[in-house]
Amino acid sequence: MERRFAPVATVHAERPETVVDRHWRAHARRALQCALAFVGLLVLLDWGSGGLTPARAGLWALLGAVAFAVLLPARVSAGDGWLAVRGLVGRRQVRTDALVAVRRYGGVAPRLLLRDARGRRLVLDSRVLEANPLIWHLLDAGARRSLALGTLRHGTHALGELADRIDGQEARGVLAASGLL
User: Fold this and answer.
1) Is 43 exposed, middle or buried (0-12, 13-18, 19+ CB in 10 A)?
2) Cα angle vertex 126, ends 124, 84, to 5°?
3) Which residues does the chain have with pLDDT short of 50?
4) What are 135-175's pLDDT values in tens digits?
5) Are 19 and 49 in contact (CB under 8 A)?
6) 118 in helix, strand or coil?
7) Residue 82, SS3?
8) CA 80 to CA 98: how far, in whole Å?
9) What is the 3-state secondary structure (H, E, C) of 142-164?
10) Other residues' Cβ atoms within 10 Å of the Cβ of residue 123
11) Strands, E, within 7-48: which ranges?
């Protein structure tokens, strides 16, 4: 069986300077599979009990759509000096070269709250940065510019911890690929 490797990053087709989350499609496909399995199970159970009607089938389809909406991950993209998160509700974008604050919160699934000088905010799952080194690199480069310009006053510690964790994972990956680990 041939082993497939994920690409280093996915580059947006219309704008080559834009990098998007390379795992988003797989996660979206998994969300769709879970929602379809949920609807299939509900319809099968309802059909087995003899109570399946077109109205109830429509209700199960609606519940499946809600489950898909809940499970669908936000799509993260980045470019030189900006980071964007697009979800079901809308799109949020911050200037990474004009960051004011970075806060990390959450225990099991830590998230980053980024705020720029224009007052725009976005929340980002830190696992997306760990899985996408190019997005992390663009965020880190923008944060360094913010620090050099003096706009980034809160959150350098959170970014440093995240950098240590991501760089450690990359080093372990390189060592494992070379057979030294």
Assistant:
1) middle
2) 30
3) 1-13
4) 988 999 999 999 999 888 888 888 888 888 887 666 666 66
5) no
6) coil
7) strand
8) 12
9) HHHHHHHHCCCCECHHHHHHHHH
10) 15
11) 10-11, 19-20
